[in-house]
Specification:
Pfam families: CPSF_A. GO terms for molecular function: nucleic acid binding. This is RSE1/DDB1/CPSF1 C-terminal domain-containing protein. InterPro entries: RSE1/DDB1/CFT1, RSE1/DDB1/CPSF1_C, WD40/YVTN_repeat-like_dom_sf. The protein is of the alpha+beta class. The protein is about 20% helix and about 40% strand. Strands 6-7-8-9 form a 4-stranded antiparallel sheet, with no helix packed on it. The longest helix is centred in the last third of the chain and has 17 residues.
């Protein structure tokens, strides 16, 4: 809202205890970045006094020149004021607690601490935030990364990475002036449109961070994830049907040949929380190089390729990423 200025918003809480979860006050503190070297305090705004059923401020994001803040079960839109932030509108009744928050255009992507993703749209005409769609599965969200205006990737405490997409046309009824929306919101049954699950994959550890990045100049952009133990992994999108068919075939053949010390099927492990969907197990495909010579020859013959071609394909895919 102030052109040419860089501002930093920080959420704070005082008197907080974890068990039971309670606090005295929550604030949003606003700073001005001066010459890129130091911070100048502008003002401090109380957003919750601990008795109004709110919660701590866990997520903030810039939204159309304003500040969108997740406060407990509420989502609020604030505007810059001289002495404090000015509340413009609020969406209440989110499942448990806003954990992550991103924005694009007039949409906000809200990650709940226990109940997965909620897609919210801002109706500028009526000055209100409207719930557009939510996930049908309960996922304790730890991080998220926006892929496009309709798609978001999320990580959860169960060690899964999932890609969710807003169904086409799902937000057309979010902003209407006919009164249908009010009837929809007051319905006893939850008729809110549900997000589509495009991909899901169990990485085995709590995912703490997600980001879109290219690790080398000119390389393919991938979804990079980091886990609680410090492991770094990447989900690389395939751009051709040939690659999809090759790795699907390789994965199925290696799965039947790879040693199983515990007797557990690799696919059942990757489907620990929910069935793996539209993701190839790269670690399993990489195990091809460690198989006995006879097993590698047998797999290559079944794929109608030579072992050299299979190994070269694996190397080319890694070189596109790193």
């Amino acid at each position: 809202s102030r052109g040419g200025e860089s501002l930093l918003a920080v959420g704070t809480v005082t008197g907080m205890t974890m068990n039971p979860l309670r606090h005295k006050e929550s604030h949003v503190v606003l700073y001005r970045v001066v010459s890129g070297e130091r911070l100048q305090l502008l003002h401090r705004t109380k957003v919750d006094d601990g008795s109004s059923g709110g919660g701590p401020v866990l997520a903030l994001v810039h939204f159309q020149g304003r500040l969108l803040v997740g406060i407990g079960k509420s989502l609020r839109l604030y505007e810059m004021g001289k002495r404090q932030l000015l509340k413009k509108c609020e969406l209440r009744g989110l499942p448990t607690m806003v954990k992550t928050l991103q924005a694009a255009g007039d949409r906000a992507f809200v990650g709940d601490m226990m109940q997965s993703m909620q897609f919210v749209r801002y109706d500028a005409t009526a000055n209100r935030l409207v719930l557009v769609a939510r996930d049908r599965s309960a996922r304790p969200i730890t991080c998220q990364e926006l892929l496009d205006v309709n798609t978001v990737a999320v990580g959860d405490k169960f060690g899964n990475v999932t890609t969710l997409r807003l169904p086409r046309g799902a937000d057309t009824g979010a902003v209407d002036v006919s009164g249908t929306r009010a009837l929809w919101d007051s319905s006893r049954e939850d008729a809110t449109p549900k997000l589509e699950t495009l991909c899901t994959y169990h990485v085995g550890e709590v995912v703490t961070s997600l980001t879109r990045a290219s690790l080398v100049a000119g390389g393919a952009e991938s979804l990079i994830y980091v886990t609680v133990t410090g492991r770094i992994g990447a989900l690389v999108p395939f751009t051709s049907r040939e690659d999809v068919e090759f790795y699907t075939s390789l994965e199925s053949h290696v799965r039947s040949e790879v040693p199983r010390p515990t007797g557990r099927d690799p696919q059942s492990y990757r489907s620990f929380y929910c069935p793996v969907k539209h993701v190839i197990d790269g670690d399993l495909c990489e195990a091809y190089g460690g198989l006995p010579y006879e097993a590698r020859e047998r797999i290559a013959d079944q794929m109608e390729r030579s072992t050299g071609e299979v190994m070269k394909k694996l190397e080319d895919t890694k070189n596109q990423l790193m």
